[in-house]
Design goal:
31% helix; 5-stranded antiparallel sheet; 3-stranded antiparallel sheet; alpha+beta; single chain
Length: 247
């Protein structure tokens, strides 16, 4: 008779639960941080490029406006048409058709025409416009006052009240006006009555803008400056005619 075989069961070790080790978790965390950091760098770089492009576009737009509107208006300084003006009004233009005030930050021009900073171009009159700079808002401003052409010649434009200033464009960090004189200086008077030989013939306009970002990594914006020149066309013609008559 065969002996009965005893089968002994073997004890199996319990299975380990699947998971990550501490080192694997740390590596994953570092890779995640690097990935997020790379995305942030790309985002910030793209945002900075967009801001710079927007800033440059605004500068170009402001320069174009300054050239098309302000410089064109400044060139009218000294224009007078005796056909439509009283004698006293015409004399006011001749005696002070332009002036630089407040240390060079303000320019006043005077002429006969339809122009005005805040009113419609609907009436021929004696006009005095004043261009200035609002440091708080960084804007170029303009205000004006007028004398109707039908008013007596004794009515002075300096006795009239300026209109409220209007903002022409912003983004400025500074502005400076400087007279252009025949003798090469910037200290002449704009007076055809008592200073004809050296009466100012134009003005330089210096505009300082907040420009592109600095390249030193600080994120600060550097200032960009441009200079525009405007000749007083009618004053130049007066001098040319006087020279031609003398020779």
């Amino acid at each position: 008779m065969m002996p009965t075989a005893h089968v002994t069961s073997k004890c199996r070790a319990p299975l380990r639960e699947a998971g990550f080790t501490l080192i694997e978790l740390m590596i994953a965390l570092v890779m995640t941080v690097l990935l997020i950091g790379g995305i942030m760098v790309v985002h910030l770089s793209g945002r900075a490029t967009f801001i710079d492009a927007t800033q440059m576009s605004r500068i170009q737009e402001n320069v174009r406006f300054a050239s098309d509107y302000m410089i064109r208006d400044i060139r009218n300084a000294g224009f007078r048409d005796e056909t439509f003006l009283r004698t006293g009004h015409e004399l006011q233009i001749r005696q002070n058709y332009a002036d630089v005030l407040n240390g060079g930050s303000t320019l006043r021009i005077r002429y006969a025409g339809r122009g005005h900073c805040t009113e419609a171009f609907d009436e021929f009159r004696l006009v005095e416009n004043e261009y200035g700079f609002d440091a708080q808002t960084g804007t170029l401003t303009c205000r004006g006052r007028t004398v109707p052409r039908d008013d007596p010649g004794e009515v002075l434009v300096t006795d009239q009240v300026f209109s409220d200033p209007v903002a022409l464009f912003g983004g400025l960090s500074g502005i400076a006006f400087q007279k252009i004189c025949p003798d090469g200086t910037a200290t002449c008077d704009c007076d055809l009555v008592d200073n004809f030989d050296n009466a100012c013939i134009g003005v330089r306009v210096g505009l300082q803008f907040q420009g592109m970002r600095e390249l030193d990594g600080t994120g600060e914006f550097e200032d960009r400056s441009i200079e525009l020149s405007a000749a007083f066309r009618n004053i130049v013609l007066d001098r040319m005619n006087a020279y031609a008559a003398a020779h």
